[in-house]
């Protein structure tokens, strides 16, 4: 139960961070460049704005993720610790929009989302709540 509370707190802190700081300026680790480079080398076609859980959890996906994750053992602290990851990056953490992932998967996907502009919607919505409602209505 303690790990679940810690994972939830981490998720809450992270969402508050991308809501208040322009995500393109965020560094999540000391090795963001390495994580991002290896992530896009290994998962060049992975759609990160809205994740398909099968891309993380299916057996073929696990076979691809395992070596990616293991290269960060000893590089990223608690690289295989459980954490929560949003499926749709335009939305907050909810039961329907959250999947359990390893910390390095979280870092890889969120660093890519920050660098590729996917998390901008969270930041701009928090800065201007009126435009957020219009954006959500337009995308529905």
What characteristics describe this protein?
PBDC1_metazoa/fungi; 2 strands; PBDC1-like_dom_sf; two-stranded antiparallel sheet; mainly alpha; yst0336 like fold; Polysaccharide biosynthesis domain containing 1; single chain; 56% helix
Task: Explain this structure.
By secondary structure, this protein is mostly helical. It has one domain (2-139): Orthogonal Bundle (yst0336 like fold), CATH 1.10.3560.10. The chain is built from 7 helices and 2 strands. It has helices spanning 2-20, 32-42, 54-57, 59-70, 103-115, 120-127, 129-139; strands at 82-86, 98-102. Helix 1 (2-20) crosses helix 6 (120-127) and helix 2 packs across helix 5. Mean pLDDT is 88; it is low at 132-140.
